[in-house]
Amino acid sequence: MLIPRAPSPDWEEPAVKKFINDPADVVAEALAGLAAAHPELRVDAAEQYIARADAPRSGKVALVSGGGSGHEPLHGGFVGPGMLDAACPGEIFTSPVPDQILAATKAVDGGAGVVHIVKNYTGDVMNFQLAAEMAADENVAVETVLVDDDVAVEDSTWTAGRRGTGATLLVEKIAGARAEEGGKLAEVAAIGREVNTNSASFAYALTAVTTPAAGRPGFDLPDDEIEAGVGIHGEPGRRREKLRPANDLVAAALDAILEAKPLTASDEVIVLVNGLGGTPLIELYLVYGTLAKLLEARGITIARRLVGNYVTSLDMAGLSITLTKATDEFLRLWDAPVSTPGLRWGA
Amino acid sequence: MLIPRAPSPDWEEPAVKKFINDPADVVAEALAGLAAAHPELRVDAAEQYIARADAPRSGKVALVSGGGSGHEPLHGGFVGPGMLDAACPGEIFTSPVPDQILAATKAVDGGAGVVHIVKNYTGDVMNFQLAAEMAADENVAVETVLVDDDVAVEDSTWTAGRRGTGATLLVEKIAGARAEEGGKLAEVAAIGREVNTNSASFAYALTAVTTPAAGRPGFDLPDDEIEAGVGIHGEPGRRREKLRPANDLVAAALDAILEAKPLTASDEVIVLVNGLGGTPLIELYLVYGTLAKLLEARGITIARRLVGNYVTSLDMAGLSITLTKATDEFLRLWDAPVSTPGLRWGA
Amino acid sequence: MEVDLAIAWLRAAADSVAASAGELTRLDAAIGDGDHGVNMNRGFTAVIAALDAGTFDSVGDVFVKAGTTLISKVGGASGPLYGSAFRALGKALPAGPSVTVPELAAGLRAGLDAVRKLGGAEPGDATLVDAYQPAVDAFKGDDLAAAAEEAARAAEEGARATAGLRARKGRASYLGERSVGHQDPGATSTALIFRALTAITAK
Amino acid sequence: MEVDLAIAWLRAAADSVAASAGELTRLDAAIGDGDHGVNMNRGFTAVIAALDAGTFDSVGDVFVKAGTTLISKVGGASGPLYGSAFRALGKALPAGPSVTVPELAAGLRAGLDAVRKLGGAEPGDATLVDAYQPAVDAFKGDDLAAAAEEAARAAEEGARATAGLRARKGRASYLGERSVGHQDPGATSTALIFRALTAITAK
Ligand SMILES: Nc1ncnc2c1ncn2[C@@H]1O[C@H](COP(=O)(O)OP(=O)(O)O)[C@@H](O)[C@H]1O
Ligand SMILES: Nc1ncnc2c1ncn2[C@@H]1O[C@H](COP(=O)(O)OP(=O)(O)O)[C@@H](O)[C@H]1O
Ligand SMILES: [Mg+2]
Ligand SMILES: [Mg+2]
Ligand SMILES: [Mg+2]
Ligand SMILES: [Mg+2]
């Protein structure tokens, strides 16, 4: 038998307990809802991308990101002044296709070139690469910023490399502000890469994610076990662990982050405590409180912070912690106005 | 035997799968995290309230709300210019105590009086009532605005009356703006009550909520059943139903809302599609898209809308729909700047 | 009843609530929001701490202290209700280190009146009134142990009978007919409190 | 192989992928993100629609159309990989309504090269290369049915063998040692595609 038997005999007919109609239509229908809810965005339903209504902005470097759907508000919720010019949502947890990325890239190119912000997953990398090649054929200059901040994955030739997770928000915000103030293509890409280099993330899952297509959790997690180092697509993590108090989990995540990207006393950081979708805000604040104390004990200053559900994994109960070593430039650009459905200040 | 046996023999020792330490410390530790994350707020850990750092504002009517914790960002996340002056978080799903409410009320009173925004639950009503009596003893003028928008509950002498749910956000935003622009105590209370009168909500749960204290879901919901008319404390709803496509559920919720508070073609509404915590944003947008179409078909105009997790029930997978019949005054005040952790625009 | 006995009663009630907290929460989860055990336990733990921290010359003061503490520590529906009941009981008692059984009976009725005034519940609404009211009615005569035993039995019977009622007050009322078949958590904790009195008065 | 047979192959592959979509997704859920069956089914459904909508004079054009469609409809890792494979296959074939078995064999190898170039996977990395490479190696001789049967067997064996490997590419690589024991979904779908060819060539 080519395909081994499923461990559970009733795999085929799950009850998909979600607010959806046909699972195949989720992305398109949600996009229609987004379009109706946000007149300040332009949603191209045929090409499946979301753009600023005022795009293309002549002379401004444009930022395009995208990836599988199911991580909302990332990326569509970050389209707007000060952040992305366009986002390409793929099917749930499936990277967008080159045609879609190309259409978005051309739609927002204001003549100053386009930065692709790509989370480091095999599918995303390949599809954006094909799109960038096609854009080059049409004389659109594209620079790619790869985000790979998830230190749970070994960065070795033995893996597809570190995954792009929470730091994506920081790259999009900071590079977006740089573009908004008139940065050139190379400059915008450079600061995006610098944010990524300065960032490290680590995540925990308490439950597995349920996609509309599968209709049931992607893996079984006993009542007293968690996935440490989980990815944002329900990929199982670095290891299974016993559930521990939040204080212990936060300390271990911080250790993993600092082992990969050491910080020293007097460093300033931007902190993101990010919910993966199913974790209540009250727990995220509790975790932030613990993290703030641990960083203070090490003499590290939290210059800016964000607590909430930003880079999610559908209904997964879990969270990620991202630390970005801050420069003055980062802080200036972080504070710059941003006006998107998912992130808004100063405007 | 006084206490009937638990249906499940192992009720006593659930594994509490949450990012917490001791369940008894959740609210206090989260409050510490909130204080660390938001220097623009003043958190009184001893009295357990959250206030604007610049409170009291002399001559400004102050707004105080509160309720059980577990509904975040409500209420603490709505403290700031243009919305609440203080919030009193109780224990999880337990209304705050009179001392706490009194302390917050006195702390933010700028001499122009204080509006208490109270969701209609027996506990909240009684505790705020005792606090208001105590405040009167100390010569602080208090007006109470009761929010009871949940049309799933019969409004009869046979019940504790309709529950306060999603409309609370609209009351806090609109009354908050009225206070910010200098409205008098009676005026601020009056517009808060008018918003409540013009609002109706209906909610569905796909899963039961798990509180830190209980450690397991509050009720059992079979894989193919949902609770229609659920409350935000995991109270079971109006009835159990079979799971249906989102389009059907939205249509039924709209029917329930319009039956309780009829709207006619050419009416304008503010719409809140609100996640209860465990439902991904992509589903909320899908639902908003469906709702927008249904309202359009009835000739009702959506003047403003909000889609996201605002009035939550910890990790409950579910959503509520709130419709508020809009007046020009409501829209003007809705658009006014607001700057809080959970809601921010124009500032 | 003397000051020491009043304190012993509250202590026994606290122990009983602590031991049954899980079960009270389970009852509340079925028709409410699943916090009644936690609420009561938090409240009575605070009551004991407050009593330990003070000295009392008057029985009434013990109950007023208990009531004030419950109001300021519990929240929810049960905090103001139980808190007002104990405060009213304490205030109704004549000042002094000892009260008679009839005085205690009158005080308990004053507590019941306070609960009914604040919460507006009638007997039959499936609330703690359905345990409290029959307990007060049964708390009679001059023998404390006997009065307590009768009251506890009546409270327990009343609590059990709430399972047959449709809730009309509090959170359970949202369920309408679906509340029938479920025993009210507040009525159950009331019965526990009356039963606690028998444990320290029985000869 | 003629145009009709090429189309029949893709149709058989589409049927097989549709029938096994749930199982492919299940394999992917264990070590990836649980969408491989959905991805492949969406892609091959689109391929059939695209082929139905066109007319083809050349075998190569059929495969180029299939590849282009997969690239523009699938996304994920499998879209560009399978899409590039079919495009490269189609482009490597001489133009015309019929190709020989050796020409097809060379085309399949061109497809493999495209996959390896784009994805960078080596044999043994536990990817679809571990089914594709042995299939291409086994696809020999002048008899299409026999070549297809050998290729399908080799692909199936290769797919099954991925269960013993540690994944080094794609999502499963994040699991490190934990990926061992799980059969690779992409290798499995590759085997299905080669098996589909035998269904229409077997005499
Ligand atoms: N209006 C009322 N009058 C009397 N008792 C009430 C009333 N409302 C609620 N109760 C009692 O309170 C109990 C619930 O207490 P608790 O769970 O601690 O508070 P909450 O309902 O706020 O979560 C109910 O079981 C009922 O006995
Ligand atoms: N670098 C690669 N080279 C070859 N095949 C790969 C590579 N990365 C992934 N694959 C194949 O793709 C399959 C996964 O496809 P799919 O689930 O559709 O995409 P995604 O991983 O983006 O969700 C894997 O099982 C593997 O066979
Ligand atoms: Mg995928
Ligand atoms: Mg409660
Ligand atoms: Mg309760
Ligand atoms: Mg996959």
TrEMBL record, chains A, B:
Keywords: Glycerol metabolism, Kinase, Transferase. It holds the Pfam family Dak1. It comes from Actinoplanes lutulentus. Residues 22-345 form the DhaK domain. This is phosphoenolpyruvate--glycerone phosphotransferase. InterPro entries: DhaK_1, DhaK_dom, Dihydroxyacetone_Kinase. Pathway: Polyol metabolism; glycerol degradation. It is an enzyme of class 2 (transferase). Its EC number is 2.7.1.121. SUPFAM superfamilies: DAK1/DegV-like. Homodimer. The dihydroxyacetone kinase complex is composed of a homodimer of DhaM, a homodimer of DhaK and the subunit DhaL. GO terms for molecular function: glycerone kinase activity; phosphoenolpyruvate-glycerone phosphotransferase activity. GO terms for cellular component: cytosol. It catalyses: dihydroxyacetone + phosphoenolpyruvate = dihydroxyacetone phosphate + pyruvate. One of its GO terms (biological process) is glycerol catabolic process.
TrEMBL record, chains C, D:
GO terms for cellular component: cytosol. One of its GO terms (molecular function) is glycerone kinase activity. Keywords: Kinase, Transferase. It comes from the Bacteria. The keyword Kinase applies. SUPFAM superfamilies: DhaL-like. GO terms for biological process: glycerol catabolic process. Residues 4-199 form the DhaL domain. Pfam families: Dak2 (PF02734). This is Dihydroxyacetone kinase DhaL subunit.
